[in-house]
Amino acid sequence: MGSFGVRRITGKLILNPTNITAFPYGGIEMGTVRDGRMRLGQTPLYEEAEEWGGQPVDVIQSETVPMFVAIMAEWSNEGVSRSLSGATIGAVTRRAVQTHDQIGATRAGTSITKGGKLLVAPDSPQDQAVIIYNAIPHPAPDADPAWTEAREWGIPMVWVAGLDIQKRTYQISPVAGIVL
Predict the structure, then answer these.
(1) Mean pLDDT of the chain
(2) pLDDT of residue 171
(3) Is 60 exceeded by the pLDDT of residue 11?
(4) What is the pLDDT at residue 157?
(5) Ranges of each domain in the chain
């Protein structure tokens, strides 16, 4: 299914915010988002009645894997090192450096998680913000980084909304209504 014309999010990515009073909300500014989308990740199962020609008669909730997908642009060094496996801050350049191990050096099944609380703070205060309480980042599958000017280098990312210790996944609200 398509996006049904749902408005996309533009704003700043903030890792581990501690307050909602002023930008950067006590957290680490990771980069900007110009075209982010919150995918609710609900997969319904339709119960069909054979006696009515297979028409749906009920919808049953099955798996739910919510996620925020976006291209992280104008990223900070901290943003890259906290989001990508194998990324660190270079000792000489003090810029984010991503390396890839030799094939087989990182075994299949190795955790690549560098998660944390992620706030997507909109550019406009009237717009909705998104907070993911346990955002598990990874590069978007089969996506290529945008290779342009350094400040415009874009990394296609996915932040899966995992459960936190209070069994919360995400909240969508104006920034002032966000519960940390």
Answers:
(1) 79
(2) 93
(3) yes
(4) 86
(5) 9-177
* Alpha-carbon gap, residue 18 to 40, rounded angstroms: 25
Least trusted range by pLDDT, from 7-11, 51-55, 80-84 = 80-84
> Which position has the higher pLDDT, 13 or 102?
13
- Alpha-carbon distances, residue 20 vs 4, 68, 78, 97, 169 (angstroms): 31, 20, 20, 31, 18
CA atoms within 13 A on the CB side of 131: 21
For residue 3, count CB atoms less than 10 angstroms from its CB and return exposed for 0-12, middle for 13-18, buried for 19 or more.
exposed
Identify the DSSP state of 154: B
Q: Exposed/middle/buried for 138, CB within 10 Å: 0-12, 13-18, 19+?
A: middle
For residue 112 the two structure tokens come to: 């690549």
User: How does strand 116-122 pair with strand 155-162?
Assistant: unpaired
